[in-house]
Amino acid sequence: MATDTLVRRTPARTRARKAKQAVGLGTRMRRNWQLYAMLAIPLVWLAIFAYWPMYGAIIAFKDYNVVDGILGSRWVGVKHFERFVESYQFWRLLKNTLILHVYELLATFWLPILLALGLNMARRRWYRRSVQLITYAPHFISTVVVVGLIVVIVDPNSGVLNQFLALLGLGPIDVLSNPDYFRHLYVWSGAWQTMGFSAIIYLAALTSVSPELHEAAIVDGASRLRRIWHIDLPAIRPVAVILLILNIGSIMSVGFEKVLLLQNTLNLQTSEVLDTYVYKLGFASQVPQFSYAAAIGLFRSVVGLALLVLANAVARRFAKSSLW
Amino acid sequence: MSMATATSSPPGTPAPVRETRSDRIVMICNYTALGLFTLAVLYPLVYVVSASLSDPKNVVSGKVWLWPVGLSVEAFKAIFDYDSIVSGFSNSIVYAVGGALLATALTLLAAYPLSRKGLPGKGLIMALFVFTMMFSGGLIPTYLVVDRLGLLNSRWAIVLPAALAVWNMIITRTFFQSTIPEELVEAAKVDGCTDFGFFWRIVLPLSKPIIAVNMLFYAVAQWNSWFSALIYLTNEHLFPLQLVLRQILIQNQFDPSQVRDTAELIRMKELQEQLKFSLIVIATVPPLLIYPFVQKHFVKGAMVGSLKG
Amino acid sequence: MRAETGPGSVRRRTFLAGAVGAAAAGGTGALSGCGADAAEVGAAPESLTQPVAELGPLKSGVNYPPGYVGPRARRQQTIVTEPATFTVVVPQSLVVGDWAKNEFTRWMEQQTGIRIQWRQVAGKGNDAETMTKVNAMMAAGDIPDAFLGITFTRSQLYLYGAQNLFVDLNPYLERYAPNLQQLMKDYPQARKLMVSPDKGIYSFPDLNDCYHCRASNGRALLNTEWLRKVGLAMPTTTDEFREVLTAFKKADLAGGGKTIPFGGYKDAPLDTFFMNSFLYNAGEPWLAVEDGKVRANYVQDEWREGLKYLRGLYADGLLAKDIFTANEDQIKRYGDNPGGPILGGARVYYWGTLMTLDLVDPKARWHEYATMQPLKGPNGVQVAPWDYLKVGLEVSTLVVTRKCKRPDLLTRWADFQLDLEVILRSYAGPDFRWSVKGDKGINGKQALYGMDSWNTDETKGKTWDQYGVMYRSGDFRLSERVDPKKPTFESPLYEQTRDALYPYRQPLEEQFPPVTLEADQAALDAEIGLNLKTEVTGALAKFVTGRLDPNDDGQWNDYKDRINQIGLQPYLEIQQAAYETYQG
Q1: Distance, in angstroms, between B185 CA and closest chain A CA?
Q2: Which of A1, A257, B251, C343 has the fewest CB atoms below 10 angstroms from its CB?
């Protein structure tokens, strides 16, 4: 079936492979010239807007100053990296950032999938459409307002949360000042805000499922859950795996604005992450620290890339899909 | 090959077979869960709209919790007092539409060839793309490039550097991989179809959902974006809506430890409280309006149903 | 999930980087080296040979209050007869509107003959947004003749000034800035605050001598109505204060146990009020000068005594539970509580942070709250930290770059704006009024001017929204007419600052001044400073809320060890050196 990417050994493919071995590289490239022609425009774009500026990353190894420029500034080797790795907060920042991102990933990765499956299953059109539209909207509420709402809800004196807990004979708990709660607050409020928007991609993926598959399964007496498991999930899987890989690659960054707004002196031990630290350093500094910032950025990129490659290898092996 | 014969039943039609009891339970659970989640999301939305329509005093003192208290449209009036709002609105539409068209085109052009099995050099090219997700030259070299190209302070500076998001490209490629079967390509080749022809006549018509998603994501990203405008523009007549809205918010903000000029402070403070909400309402309406058009393409079996033949 | 991980997050990251400086910065443009285009940049020789500018004759019909020190209205002449045009980068402002079409812009052009080509940058001029853009421009060599209202730090001015990117205005100020010369006579500290370590002056300054701002950090309010109800006087010592709060709590004047004896919020530090009963403490970065030596307050034994005192208050339930976590909206919700006040007092900057102000009703709630004087501690310490140096003279108002051929003309253009009438036009718009004899100002003396429509819709597009160069002396600010029908809180703010705080100010020599750092030092200063701040504020909150115990020697010593580990010693050395440079 068309959707089933797992069926690899179709006769056509085997034939193609044999043919590939038979003809030389040059011939194959010539045969595909139209595909290369299509790729040309995006590649030119990539060269200009992504690769041309990339030489700038060398300032991570220099003491950059405005007058001498990128190329003229003095080389200093790994000085900035050493300073970062040896800095007082380095391990705490690393730990907080990783935990927060991994937690976010674990908690929120499957939620949009669930939402998409649920929406896909719902048959009343008006219901499905209005749920979709409503859940998509919070994506557009600014972080400031979201945090404002959170503060109102968890307020120790009058917030809904503590009124609810009081009904159960619990609490009150002061969520904001307790470092243990910070991560839950961040992650679950994020899930609530972005789930609808993130589900769009899966909804689109589900469109590729042929209704006939479902009809055939129904005739065979498969229950709804079984059909989701055997028909809908496999349709989503390639996209889900790719999204997971990409997410692992961005492990060193979190939604910094929200973290910053949720921070206070009492929860800093869990809420200070790489991004907020760099941001504050920028504010604290009387002189912009271009090179140091570049070094931190490069560090983050290297870690991200390493994890991305790793995740990709794992995915290629076990999930049979991969980035390259 | 008859590509366009849709044999499947129209979407949304109930399946002909009677449901079992367990299926009905699953359905009920599903409807309930969706309903509860929707309510949880709906509340802040209603709150934002109500707050934007309330007397700011009532917002600050916490009297507004669901419906507007002390109805007032002052905040909206205040917003439209700023001339730059109107130009910001039209600029944003230009950036969003233009940006989405350009970026979607580029994305499809990159994603389709890279989705094809056995294209020599595919892995390398993919790696080139993925690498840029992790490494970037950073702000200033990019600024220099935009400057060299003579794009500074023009609309192109907003649209061109954002003309492709590798993330979207990868998703689109994955889509092609899982929905355009290699057999189809082979068959088309046998029929004498070129790659261009196949892409134009078969891939594009089959990819409406992912094209819609791309258009939506790019348009929304442009609509929400203000950073490149901040960096590349020094002519306020080119500012997009989001940058104007930020300016309104920022400039009505005060650092309380620096209360130097207190006379107008209170008025601004109250206005700020209300603007916070009304600005969101203004900025959210267009993306909400376009969503149903995108939604139209999320129809079960829209693609594969037409593939039979 | 994170469907927005696409373009959005990339941008967010870029912004982050921009805030620090940029993830990677470049600049091979026109600025690299002084090679080929060295001849094209820099001032033209005739800039320093123009006739020296002098103060014009005073205009008549202005009622200066007796003893008035500040700007005066004079007859000024046009600067150029042949048109001269300069490119100037400014913050985009909703009040100014389009700078090119602004009314004050046109007026200035008419009066001075100098034309400006504006380039408008988003942001506020002093925030991360503006500076991200400006740093990118600088690094790319895309610089204008001058920056107006863009706040470079002192260290940045010095860095770029020493590299000849910014013009040293010393020779120009001497010849072409008579109004500024007068300002420096009026404010003897001004010159010291303007010069860089290499004696260069890399920007044309601005002066805004805001009286009540100088005491902002030491301000706390207490409910006098409640004091009356519990029959106690305004407390003057730490013990009396505790008594008052205990009485508030006991009497539960809000009813239903809702009383919060003393509140606050996370942006108004507690230590700037309470620690001053134990040692002089101006707040972050918690430095003071003792006999010429820079001292860090947070490792002193007096600091620990202060922590013990605060711990006691908190443990007895006299401080709000969320005093470290509440945000501004939150404290305002308490302040505005419908049905009557629930706050006995609070550490806030002024009434407006505590509640919505009703300026019409003379019985409005905010009138119940009065400024406390600093509390006398067990050892007799009683200080209201007074900011002599950081409030007032501001550098970086107009920065002239080496692209500018005629710095003399821009200097005269800036100096022109220091005239009383020009200030009022720039600040309040063309509708300001000279006061008549008998009008009362904020300080109760003869008023000089009134500006009823200041910063309202009427003045949109007519003023420069405080981005211009101005000389707002203390007398100038306080001689603004108060409309008896519509009094603002300016007068009570002034009076209470004068009576409750000013008498307890520390000597000038004890204040740690705004210093200028070399680029290397600035990097170290930023990093250690940030880590110290995290530790000090975090530990303060923990010591007070009971997660740490200030009475426990072990815990106090651990805290001090952490501070030392972060690098207190090298940090203090940097500050000491910078302080000595400042002193000259």
Answers
A1: 10
A2: A1
Comparing alpha-carbon positions, the chain A residue that sits nearest to B165 is A46
- B48 contacts in A (CB within 8 Å)? 141, 145
Inter-chain CB pairs, A–B, below 8 Å: 295
pLDDT at A16: 53
CA-based end-to-end distance of chain A: 24
Residues from chain C contacting residue A196 (CB–CB below 8 Å) = none
Residue C206, beta-bridge partner list: C394
Q: What number of H helices and E strands is found in chain B? A: 15, 0
CB-based contact (8 Å) between B27 and chain A? yes
Q: Is C450 helix (H, G, I), strand (E, B) or coil?
A: strand
Minimal C-alpha gap between C546 and chain B (Å): 28
Q: Residue C472: is its pLDDT beyond 60?
A: yes
Nearest to C259 by CA among C368, C342, C345: C342
Please give the pLDDT value at position A171: 67
Which has the minimum average pLDDT: A111-125, B261-275, C55-69, C550-564? B261-275
**Is residue C414 within 8 Å of residue C172, measured between CB atoms?**
no
Angle in degrees, 0-180, between the axes of helices B166-179 and A233-249, rounded to the nearest 10: 160
Identify the CA nearest to B171 among candidates B139, B129, B206, B234: B129
Domains of chain C in start order, with CATH, are: 50-210+392-476 (3.40.190.10), 213-390+486-515+539-552 (3.40.190.10), 519-538+553-583 (no CATH)
CB contact under 8 A, A287 and C2: no
A 66-105 residues inside an 8 A Cβ radius of C: 66-72, 83, 87-89, 104
pLDDT greater than 70 at residue C465: yes
> What percent of chain B stands above pLDDT 90?
23
Q: How many CB pairs under 8 A join A and C?
A: 224
Nearest to C356 among B60, B139, B227 (CB): B60
pLDDT band at B248 (very low <50, low <70, confident <90, very high): confident
A141 CB near a chain B CB, below 8 Å?
A: yes
DSSP per-residue letters across C504-554:
GPPPGGGBPP-----HHHHHHHHHHHHHHHHHHHHHHHHHHHTSS-TT-HH
d(CA A151, CA B217): 30
Give me the DSSP letters along B49-113: HHHHTB-HHHHHTT--SSS-SSB--HHHHHHHHSHHHHHHHHHHHHHHHHHHHHHHHHHHHHHHH
ipTM of the complex in this document: 0.84
* pTM for this entry: 0.84
CB spacing of C11 vs B260 below 8 angstroms: no
Q: What is the largest CA-CA distance in chain C?
A: 80
User: Any idea where the domains of chain A sit in the sequence?
Assistant: 36-77, 88-318
What is the rounded CA–CA span in Å between residue B295 and residue A118?
16
| β C433-434/C393-400 pair status | unpaired
List Cα–Cα distances, C539 to C269, C310, C546, C562, in angstroms. 13, 13, 10, 10
Q: What is the tens place of the pLDDT at every residue in A43-92? A: 999 999 999 999 888 989 998 888 888 888 899 999 999 988 988 889 99
pLDDT at A22: 63
Chains in contact with A, where contact means 3 or more Cβ–Cβ distances below 8 Å, are: B, C
Q: Which other chains touch chain B, taking contact as 3+ CB pairs less than 8 Å apart?
A: A, C
A72 touches B at CB < 8 Å? no
CA–CA separation, B210 vs B115, rounded Å?
A: 14
Pick the CATH number of A88-318 from 1.10.3720.10, 3.40.1280.10, 1.10.443.10, 3.40.190.10: 1.10.3720.10
For B233, the closest chain C residue by CA position comes to: C121
Specify the CATH superfamily of domain B74-307. Answer: MetI-like (1.10.3720.10)
Least CA distance to B275: which residue of chain A? A145
For the ranges A309-313, B255-259, C111-115, C323-327, the lowest mean pLDDT is seen at: B255-259
